[in-house]
Amino acid sequence: MRILVAVATRHGATREIAEHLATSLGSALTDAGVAPEVEVRDVGLVSSLEGFDAVVLGSSVHRGQWLDPARKFAESFSDGLRWLPVWLFSRGPVDERDEPARELARQLAARDHRVFDGTADRPLIRAWGHEIGAILAAAAVAGSAS
Description:
This protein has helices spanning 13-31, 68-76, 78-82, 99-107, 122-145; strands at residues 2-8, 37-42, 54-62, 65-66, 86-91, 112-116. By secondary structure, it is an alpha/beta fold. Strand 3 and strand 4 form a beta hairpin. Helix 1 (13-31) packs across helix 5 (122-145). The longest helix is centred in the last third of the chain and has 24 residues, at 122-145.
């Protein structure tokens, strides 16, 4: 199972969150007997969603909004993202001004949107990654049984 963890970051902390998510997600898939291939990429380096089975998209938040590269990624790949299981995460304070991220979650039919303060939230980040991995593993096992 091939998973893309696409991330937009200003200073690297959001990428660290993405890497922790990827590790725990991959571990959950492995534990369930599903061979994982989890790739963490900067959103600007993604040219296609072809071959991916799911996407986790994250962005740091600046002035209450996702970074432009993350929003542009979601817009550019919106058709493909609608056909894949998608999860979103934000790093930083999200308030009522972050309506665009909530709207994006609705548009992409994202399974979940989580907000993390930073790498201090590691236990929460890992738990969420494991949760995503368990969901994907269950879907993969169910799909191979039919």
